[in-house]
Automatic annotation (TrEMBL):
Leader sequence segment: 1-22
One Pfam family from the record: ZrgA
Protein origin, superkingdom: Bacteria
Protein name, entry field: DUF2796 domain-containing protein
Keywords carried by this UniProt record: Signal
Amino acid sequence: MNASPFSCLLAAACLLPVPALAGPPGAHVHGAARLQVAVDGSTLNLQLETPLASLVGFEHAPRTAQQKQALQAMADRLRQANEIFTPTPAARCTLVSVELESPLLQPSPPAGGDGHADLDGSFVFRCDDAAALRDLEVGLFASFPKLRRLDVQVAGPRGQSAARLSPQQRRVSW
């Protein structure tokens, strides 16, 4: 029996793991973001990576006063990370630092570019009772309605796990 080139290609694609079909890690997908959660002793580290379109609806240098205001409002909201990320209340975690990086948050955003600007956010919490830290409620969807999916990777004292969050499912547990 002779197989067509198409059926061979289809069979090979079916053997690939699903993430390989979705594109390389770090693929630029509007409406989606990635969150890495690391629990290290009493420290909870969160690393957010997302296209700016998922947060503000555009990725080019702001062209209007409204777009400049949208970028500023987004940055101000993310700096209030203790209102967006809620670790297990019993762990008594306190926000220690927030760092936001994007070419569009620079005092003079670059003109031109490839039109695919991202945002990288780093959020650090210190927890008084790290043993009680078991989950994280993520409020990004309420603050940024263009965000539809959040792929989460967790590394903690009980090992590694992954979850996909959505506006309907906003909590990751470990």
